[in-house]
Every structure is written in structure tokens, then in C-alpha cells.
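re the bet — no i am not wrong, look at it urself. input seq straight from the record:
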Amino acid sequence: MVKELTPFEKKVYTVVKKIPAGEIRTYAWVARKAGAPGAARAVGSALNKNPFPIIVPCHRVVNAGGSPGGYAFGADLKKQLLELENAFRNKRKTKRYRS
């Protein structure tokens, strides 16, 4: 049973669902798109509780420096998922989303 999502979590999950496969975004980028600039840590907390990891691809959200960061299912799995999607090979393509 999934607990009811907060309005912020709903916004974060809506933003993250739109990140295309093979691309990455930063926690800060998600925070801005969710209408809460400066709430990058809160985005991380919301994603850590993501009850829909197949629908909401939280593994596509990385630290500002481009490192994978944390993942509820383990950092190794996050890296593997990103490698499967070639996200880091496409890093240059997604840099524009960091600002």
C-alpha cells in the first residue's frame, strides 16, 4: 500500500517522469522545474521514497557535479541503470539542463 503523496512529491515525480531515457538531470534542475528552487535536498528525499521506480525513473537524477549520488536501491544499481541507458555517454548533450 502506497502512502498518500505530498503535493511536493507529486510535483517532483511529475517532473522526473518526463526525463527521457539516456538523459540525466540534476536534483537542482528538478527542484526548479517543480517550482521549488533551492530544494535540491528535498528532491533527493522525495526520490528516496519513490514508490514507483519503474514509472518515475529517479535513477536519471544526479548530483550537480554529474556523479550519480544516492539511490534507494543502492548506488551500484543506479550506476548500472545509467550505463544501460548510456546516460553518461550522453552527458555532453544534457549539460545545458544544469543551469
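see?? The CA atoms of residues 26 and 62 lie 5 Å apart. told u. also The mean pLDDT is 86. so pay up
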